[in-house]
Amino acid sequence: MDVTAVDRSAVLGDTLLHRAAPASKLVSAGLLLGAIVTVNDPLVAAGLALSLVGAGAAVRLPLRQMLPLALYPALFAVVFAFAAAPGPATGALFVLKAVTAALTVVTLMFSTPYPQVFAPIQRITPTIVGDALLMTYRSLFILAEKFSDLLRAVRLRSGVSARQPVRAARATARALGGLLLYSLDLSQREYDILRLRGYEGGMRVRRQVSTDRSADAAALLYAALILAVVVVFRALPHELGGYAWLVTVVGAVDLATGLRIGRRT
Question: What predicted TM-score, i.e. pTM, was given to this entire model?
């Protein structure tokens, strides 16, 4: 997982979703996750997944980087579905729900700076926990750059190439060992610096405001509409069960439309 790519998109991106307030995006993500938990038909779940991808394409989010991350949970969902699902339809539902939930969270992370996602958590957790999360986020980038430098140095000094997998694995292990020692030293130095500066807890993140109210309204309306459709199909399974394929078709139309809009803008 390239953490720097996620942060670069979240901080430097300028899509419609980036202009919405983090609070609106968090509420929208919560509504979408509620819809994913509620859905019980694989065709409806497939339509939801296709629609989310189409919405991401329409606002020009970096789908090439997002989709591989969203597909990671599918590996575990397939194993779980194979072991626990009573039939193929239920197994497909498990996988689709896992991928769609991951895509929702990935979309949020690619369009919202981590401190803004983390700020609400700060208000309900103990001070030390909130501060630790914030400092961990900062340290990830320092350690990622350090690991890259260590790995490059080890490979240059040992002459390791991609055609030597055993030596490459050893070089990576040495770099990880060096990174572990560096991370311990880094944490101690950061702790000492905070104590020296009189740290007593309470590192707060300034709330980001919306720069486009229409973006807030669009995100909330989209999520609410998705949840309403899922709830209706869940509440009326006998009356609407035979029409679940329409949701998949609408999702495919959303995907095609989103791809077309994304190419034009």
Answer: 0.78
